[in-house]
Structure formats: structure tokens, C-alpha cells
Specification:
There is one protein chain. By secondary structure, the chain is mainly alpha-helical. About 65% of the residues lie in helices and about 5% in strands. The chain contains 11 helices and 4 strands. A two-stranded antiparallel ribbon has the order 1-2. Strands 3-4 form a two-stranded antiparallel sheet.
């Protein structure tokens, strides 16, 4: 609906601006949570780890997106010379695949844990609520850019995109990007609650919560770039894995808590 905004005599993509804003807000939230919940973690380390996560997530998200559209990318590579603005709009400005970013961020987490510079409870407490916050802001950027659009609808909630964008023009579409953004913000609020005393509980809630949210919203996605693998999209298969991991982690945590209480009961 608003792919560009005119700033300083040039058109700036709103998607990029919102991603930058999300990155800053995520950094501020991580600093706040570190100061409140893990004061033993230096402020400089919090910022350094956050930058590492952002870089890993951006690389993972972009690589995954290019893999999904590789045939189209190779077929349109000539646009780099004939219409570079269109090429950037199609393959650079948008096209971030969240699950690719999640995988990239997870690899960074594994690297930090192996380096023993930070513990899993610290990472989970400080950074996990940041993930849905930044993601939700990014989804609003998707809505403005017209990517990740929904299926056609006759509902009064349908939005119509103008010609020349990424979404089909003149057709009312489900604003699924905004629905997912709302779900992400709710998930962020849930992860910020102070009721997770056992390490791993926040992660289980996130895996289950976002897995269900993404599986459901994918049913209303209308863009072909998301990639289909049989009856489901690639993201839905990954969502199933996330939900299964969340259930397994929850059961494991419950079993661990039960075995710790059992000797006391005897």
C-alpha cells in the first residue's frame, strides 16, 4: 500500500525503513531485558550478541529467499542492466524469508553457546522476545511493499493494491501480513511475562505459538514465491517441525520437573 516514501529527494523503501526500525526497537528491548533480568551480562556483550544475531538472521533470510526464487532470479538476471530498480524491488528490497532468518539466528546461538561466552538461559531470557517483535514490524513492511500477500477475498477486510507493485492489482486480498504481525506482537507479550522459571519454557512457547500461527496464516497466503512442497507450503512443513519440537520440549521439561519432585514426595 505504501512501497516507498520520499525522503531527501529520493524514494526510500518503507520495507527497509520498518526493518531498520524493528532492529532498533529489538536492540532496545534486549538491553532493557538484560538490565532487568540478567544484570551479570555486560551491556557491551548484549549489543555485540544482538549484532551477531541480526547479521546471521539477515543472511539466512536472504539466502533462503533466493533459493525459493532461483529459477526466476536466473531468468531475470538481465534486469540488472536493463531495469536495475525493478530487479532490486523484486529480489533485494523484499524477499526476506523468516524461517531462513530463524535458521541463521539459531546457528549464531549455537556458535555463541559453543564459545561459552553466554549461557542458554541468558540468551533465551534476553533475546527470544525480540524475535516476534522484529518479525511483526517486518510483516507490516511486507504489507506496505505488497509482498507475502493474501488470497483474494470478498470480505470488507480485503485490501486492493495499485498497479506496478508485487501484489496483484485491483483485486481485494486478505491482509494476511497484518494478521501475522498482530499474532507476533501477542507472542512477544507472552514471552515477556515473568512466569518462565525453567530454562526452555520460553522456547517451547515460542515454537508452539509461532508454529501454529504460521501454519494457519499460510493457508491464506496467495503468493507463489512461498514455495509448495506437496499439499503444504515449505513454511508449513517447517511449522510442523517447530510445533513438534515445542511439544517435545514441553514434555521433556515436565518430565524433568516431575522427576525432581518425586524423591521429595517419597
Amino acid at each position: 500500500m505504501l512501497p516507498y516514501i520520499h525522503l531527501i529527494n529520493r524514494d526510500v523503501p518503507v520495507y527497509g525503513l520498518l526493518m531498520a526500525a524493528g532492529g532498533v526497537l529489538g536492540w532496545l528491548l534486549s538491553l532493557y531485558r538484560a538490565q532487568r533480568h540478567t544484570p551479570e551480562l555486560p551491556r557491551e556483550s548484549v549489543t555485540r550478541f544482538y549484532v551477531i544475531f541480526v547479521i546471521g538472521a539477515l543472511v539466512g533470510a536472504k539466502v533462503y529467499s533466493l533459493v525459493l526464487v532461483w529459477p526466476s532470479l536466473t531468468a531475470n538476471i538481465s534486469l540488472l542492466w536493463t531495469d536495475p530498480q525493478l530487479f532490486l524491488q523484486m529480489y533485494v528490497y523484499g524477499g526476506m524469508v523468516f524461517y531462513g532468518g530463524l535458521i541463521g539466528g539459531a546457528l549464531c546461538v549455537a556458535g555463541l553457546l559453543l564459545s561459552r561466552r553466554v549461557t542458554f538461559p541468558q540468551l533465551e531470557t534476553v533475546y527470544l522476545p525480540v524475535v516476534p517483535l522484529v518479525h511483526g514490524i517486518g510483516r507490516i513492511g511486507c504489507f506496505c511493499a505488497g509482498c507475502c500477500y493474501g488470497v483474494p477475498t470478498d470480505s470488507v477486510l480485503g485490501v486492493v493494491y495499485p498497479a506496478g507493485g508485487l501484489a496483484p492489482a485491483g483485486i481485494p486480498l486478505v491482509p494476511i501480513q497484518l494478521f501475522e504481525a498482530a499474532g507476533d506482537f501477542v507472542l512477544c507479550a507472552l514471552l515477556c511475562l515473568p512466569f518462565y522459571r525453567q530454562p526452555g519454557r520460553r522456547l517451547a512457547v515460542y515454537l508452539l505459538g509461532y508454529g501454529c500461527l504460521r501454519f494457519a496464516t499460510e493457508c491464506f497466503r496467495g503468493d507463489a514465491a512461498r514455495g509448495l512442497a506437496g499439499p503444504l507450503s515449505g513454511a508449513q512443513w517447517i511449522s510442523i517441525v517447530c510445533m513438534a519440537a515445542g511439544v517435545a520440549l514441553t514434555l521433556g521439561l515436565c518430565l524433568r520437573a516431575w522427576t525432581r519432585r518425586r524423591p521429595q514426595a517419597g
